DNA sequence: CCTGCTCTGGAACGGCGTTCCATGACTATT
DNA sequence: AATAGTCATGGAACGCCGTTCCAGAGCAGG
């Protein structure tokens, strides 16, 4: 017999996978990655930790589901323009921006890159590289580079966000990096000294786009 | 008064930061990232977990020190050739290869990219981009892209190694990915189907180099 | 009303990072 | 040689964590 003929809807505040994942996202956003524990989550949902395990197998699955939710929502709103390069920038930026809002997504993506939503990124970006004129034989390498650059930036953004939980701490954190860099011997590390000042004033989003353009420029000659 | 006029050398088997870090590297290499606990480490060193804290402040510092040791060793053996692009490849490969041998370095680098050894990477790679003819104004973006691509590949290599602890499991793991990819509708995901086969046979090191060349090719027009 | 299922929530388990502290090992001073 | 004082050790203990267990609440069909 069908185990669930119609939706049970036992009570109004019933637990569900969706409600749990939504609550986990809230916890991650508001209090950071370390705050997501089954106890805190159970408390937030006014239940016991055991109840959660009825809907979610373990913490890895919970983090994957949360990442998946955020990522697929971010990818849903991409407008496919006429210029393939612009569309590639839009794809990359939608992931980048999602990670700036939810840094824990970057951490998770670096740890578990094969999320289902990433398949979406592969499909869409390879289509654009194809439109760009990249031959089939080079497609894989282009898309790989695109995704790995994306994941590297994602991880770095997440790591930065971990150190400056509030945006106001940004100058202090950057100053500390500059200080550690310039402490080195300028004779032995001339370029580090040269770049140190740019670290202080750099815009992460702009640097991300500039690096992306390097890859796109490199993909052109691959035609 | 000088607290330590000459080296104490109290006993032959004395604990030391070096011995602890070396032991931690051994544990990480032989049994994986999850096996590194202060208890297991203390057991390996025939001591108590409390003794370790006299030399190392906490687990983060231990992982940083281990990463630093492996990374600076890897960077030490780079021959600076005459071609800047080749030297850049050599720098990137030395990090990539170190991570293939010690996957946990990739995890750590994705979590904490500002290791002291990474300053070495910044210095050396920016010098090579400079030799390549990249103007000072674009140097920062080129080096950033280079490092972020490196870190993205590092994280992905580490993640892959986590799933196939023994090399023999590689085909099975790749087959599982291919299966999950090809399960999707070929009409909706044509490129994923196209790339799926290449995933099975791809060589990570070769793909890494191909992606790197995209960035190097993109950096050339930046002159 | 009873039976059997889904779902709940709190207790319990083993393991973790870290702290605490009594004590051993050694040096410097008398 | 005895003592004082510091460095270093290692095992116990604390508070958390993810996860498992299970008694029982709520509900459906016979």
TrEMBL record, chains A, B:
Pfam families referenced in this protein's UniProt entry, alphabetically: TetR_C_1, TetR_N
DNA-binding region positions on the chain: 37-56
Keywords: DNA-binding, Repressor, Transcription, Transcription regulation
GO terms of molecular function: DNA-binding transcription factor activity; transcription cis-regulatory region binding
Function: TetR is the repressor of the tetracycline resistance element; its N-terminal region forms a helix-turn-helix structure and binds DNA. Binding of tetracycline to TetR reduces the repressor affinity for the tetracycline resistance gene (tetA) promoter operator sites.
InterPro entries: Homeodomain-like_sf, HTH-type_TetR-like_transc_reg, HTH_TetR, Repressor_TetR_C, Tet_transcr_reg_TetR, Tet_transcr_reg_TetR-rel_C_sf
Protein name from the UniProt record: TetR family transcriptional regulator
Organism: Azospirillum palustre
SUPFAM superfamilies linked: Homeodomain-like, Tetracyclin repressor-like, C-terminal domain
Limits of the HTH tetR-type domain: 14-74
GO biological process: negative regulation of DNA-templated transcription; response to antibiotic
Transport found in the keyword field: no
């Amino acid at each position: 017999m069908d185990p669930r003929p119609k939706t049970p809807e036992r009570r109004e505040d019933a637990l569900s996978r969706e409600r749990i994942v939504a609550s986990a996202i809230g916890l991650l956003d508001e209090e950071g990655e370390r705050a997501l524990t089954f106890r805190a989550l159970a408390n937030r949902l006014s239940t016991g930790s055991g109840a959660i395990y009825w809907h979610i197998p373990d913490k890895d699955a919970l983090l994957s589901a949360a990442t998946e939710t955020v990522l697929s929502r971010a990818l849903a709103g991409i407008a496919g323009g006429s210029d393939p390069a612009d569309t590639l920038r839009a794809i990359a930026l939608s992931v980048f921006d999602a990670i700036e809002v939810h840094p824990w997504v970057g951490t998770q993506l670096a740890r578990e890159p094969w999320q289902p939503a990433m398949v979406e990124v592969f499909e869409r970006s390879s289509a654009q590289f194809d439109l760009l004129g990249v031959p089939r034989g080079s497609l894989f390498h282009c898309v790989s580079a695109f995704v790995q650059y994306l994941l590297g930036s994602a991880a770095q953004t997440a790591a930065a966000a971990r150190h400056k939980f509030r945006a106001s701490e940004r100058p202090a954190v950057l100053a500390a990096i500059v200080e550690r860099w310039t402490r080195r011997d300028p004779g032995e590390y001339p370029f580090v000294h040269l770049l140190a000042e740019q670290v202080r004033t750099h815009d992460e989003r702009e640097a991300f786009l500039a690096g992306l353009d390097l890859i796109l420029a490199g993909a052109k000659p691959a035609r």
